[in-house]
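Quick question about two entries, pasted in order.
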Amino acid sequence: MFIISLFKQRRIQSVFIFGNKMRKTITILGSTGSIGRSALRVVNSMIDEYEVLGLSCFSNIDIMRQQIVEFSPKFVAVESESICLSEDFLKLKKDFPNVKFLEGKLASEELASIEVDVCVSAIVGSAGLKPSLAALKSAKRIALANKETLVMAGEFFLNEAKKNNCEIIPVDSEHNAVFMLLNNIERKHLSKIILTASGGSLRDCPVDELGLATSQIVGDHPTWDMGPKITVDSATLVNKGLEVIEAHYLFDIDYNDIEVLIHHESIIHSLIETIDGSVYAHMSVADMALPILNALNFPNRVCNNFGRLKLKEIGSLTFSELDDHRYPAFTFCIEAGKIGGIAPAVLNAANEIAVESFLKGKILFTQIVKVIEYVIHKTSFVKNCNIEDIFNADKEARIMALNFIGSIST
């Protein structure tokens, strides 16, 4: 299997000294987001192992200020051009003269291009693709939390990773769980992968009342603490659909051999079934610190101080079949994945525009899938495409989605 064999090619070399111990350098793209903050929690627990070289954010310089104080990065990237012109940002630069600030829309790409041992790619959405691509040439290992990188450009990205001898280890809890499970079996014995889904914040809402759900209600996820965009994606199950596409590329597995189950407790993150009918589950507390810990330290295991399962307190684990009527957007994700080429990028772009519009109150929750359906069915797909085709398709799909939203919201 490509992703496993790639991981075994080399070990990360350290370049910083902490006391008498060498430390690895780490850059975190999207450090002020939920995954980025979790990554820094992990780094803080291993401060004698890692030197924070760089941090990036889009606009949240208040949290970035706190992170600079705590971790003393050498580089900080801020993408929002309006924030970079603000008095608060000018004060930030003045207060930290030893930090090299990278500014503007290419700032994260510039940061990702700086040589480092580990790059955590945690920028949400399609905005994370270009920085992830840049990191392939400068990082020895990418801990990949940005699923859109593989959704939009999976084949291209993994081929470039192989060319650059860059390790890719998934950080999504589901994919990290599969990755860890697959290290314990021979690939020829694998029958299928089973990804679990919480069902999102509206899993118990009557289907005919979904259109009444506000962004505040949708944003109240039952088990995970995530940003607003991913929490909406969890409610539509687009998030899981994107994860199926991601799993297809990461583990080189056919879509027909990837199953999704609704699992309310979010205790089992993924399962694998072997050809003899045995099923192996990866279980842990619902905290992103654990998959990040695994991604940073693989193939070694280190002590986890972020929480332990207490099965006797959980009592029971429940599973149910995915309801296509409740989650129609999931079907379009799988359809786009099977089409391949630019289709997943088009799907992702339409969804990002639709979710943003929902969060701004421009469309109803149930209209998110209408936007996706319209853009998918209005696009002519070409399977043989290059990276520029993907970026162009992303741009055109966004324009199409915005135009459609304008027609249904007026």
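Here is the second entry:
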Amino acid sequence: MGNSQRTAIKEDRFTDPWFAQYKTPTEGYITADGNTIRFPFRLHSEELMVYGTADAAKLWADQVPGEIYEPVLVGGKAVISAWFNNWADSDSGGAYHETWYYTYVTPKGQKLSLPYDSPMSLLVSDPRALQFVLRVICGDNPVNPGAGQKGIFAGRSVWGYPKFPFPATIKFTITEDKRWSIDATLQDKLCVKASVRLPEADEEGVQIVPVDVVTAPDAAIGGPRLGGVSLGHNGAHQTRYGTAVKCTQYCKAWDPETDSIEYGDHPHFAPINGWDFKPLLKVTSPDYKIAYFKNSNWITADETEKRIAEMEAKHRRGTPLGQC
């Protein structure tokens, strides 16, 4: 990543054998900028992830009133997962840069509280916990101009991600002393900067976690209900979707002596500063591969007919619409 400037789109793309099962498109979608998005949608990258805790009440107070989910608690705290994505290639337009943060939720009234035993407890794997995306910014890889904006249109159009509409400047490097260095700005304001020593740089305390998983088709949530536009969230619409992931994760406890992260004052990324975010775990993956599947909100004609019949039956009984 010290040479993180990847080449632009090549013919020999997604050559890792894992991607072979997703080579043939099953369906597609035309985004608002005229780009064509295929499913399964593929990306691969080098990743840095920072997991920490936050005050659940403060976090959720910033979401759209009437939200139908509530935060998962680990040791009584909400979980924040901050990702730094150095995409080497993507089906939206090749290499680009991205950073985002999300939490875990369950449907309202189905509270999930998990124990905290160590920083590794923040790698929530309970199938009841759904990823809920909170904020995203995208930027160009300098050798592939325009891909950041394509990633913005794809994320907003297809998954309803709360991506800021205009590209940011996101710089990723790995320094000689084996650390990620990140600087992300948007509209001349700081979004986030970080300096994190690679977990795999030191043998002591590092845990290696192989990941090869296919989630449920509705295991993740694209963003706030109604998009949160009125609150400055810059979301588009709320969707449910599933993914397949294969990678190797190198995990180690956050060390304030060697690691730092600071969120700035750009309004889109600043809300995390009011949630008492405390980083506790750092994770890197040099071989991150993911495939996104068609949103589970789209259903077949048979499923549509069945659900409409059920809804109309409830209407005849006087069931309020929101309970259908």
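Reply: The chain has one domain: 17-293. Helices lie at 56-61, 147-159, 301-316. Hope that helps.
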